[in-house]
Amino acid sequence: MLATIRSIMRRMADIPGTAEEYAAHLEGRLGAIARVRGFLLRAPDARVELEELVRSEFLAQAIPDKQLQIFGPPVLLDSKAAENLGLTVHELTTNSIKFGALGHDCDRVYVRWRLERPEQSWVVFDWRERVGRTLARSDRRGFGFELIEQIIPYVLGGSSSIIVHPDGLHCSLSFAVPPLERH
Q1: Whole-angstrom Cα distance, residue 160 to residue 183?
Q2: What's the number of domains the chain is made of?
């Protein structure tokens, strides 16, 4: 966990901005990690339910349920997967509040996951935003996108992609959880 925090701090230091912006971004990321650690501390088997992890980030950001649709089968995550997915969901939520669907009351975010290869416990996680306006195309990839595109493949041995469509962002993650980590 400390290695993850150290890596976040180093990478953030390379991004231009004020000390206040740096502090706000760091506080948000540390908050996401702290929420996951809280789940892990209260669970005797150190596992976190994927749906609870997703909902906790929306609750922490005071996102109204009317903007969300969350659906997927029960999946238990070990500490490594929970910490990294918690940070990923935090980055997606923060980006959506600033630039996407969660910044406008009439827009929606759909978070769904499924077991694609149940025998291997392969999870496919999809985040889709639907906005009522055309999003500006940008080739700029911020720290959050870089984190998401690297963290899942490197730490969880999976894959990730982020595409900004004119009608909203789509992030797809695929990763394995050990068979014992599912209900």
Answers
A1: 24
A2: 1
Cite the DSSP H helix spans in 100-127.
none
Residue 62 pLDDT greater than 70, yes or no: yes
Q: List, for residues 63-82, the tens digit of each pLDDT value.
A: 889 999 999 999 988 888 88
**pLDDT at position 37 over 70:** no
In the predicted structure, residue 51 carries a pLDDT above the cut 60 = yes
Mean pLDDT, residues 84-95? 89
CB 12 within 8 A of CB 22: yes
Residues 6+ apart with CB under 8 A from 116: 122, 123, 124, 174
Containing domain of residue 127, as a range? 2-181
Instruction: Write the CB contacts of 169 (distance below 8 Å, at least 6 apart in sequence).
Output: 92, 95, 96, 100, 101, 127, 128, 129, 135, 162, 163
Distance from chain centroid for Cα 172: 10
CB contact at 8 A, 175 and 114: no
The domain that holds 24 is classified in CATH as: 3.30.565.10
- Cα separations (Å) of 25 from 14, 22, 70, 175? 13, 5, 25, 26
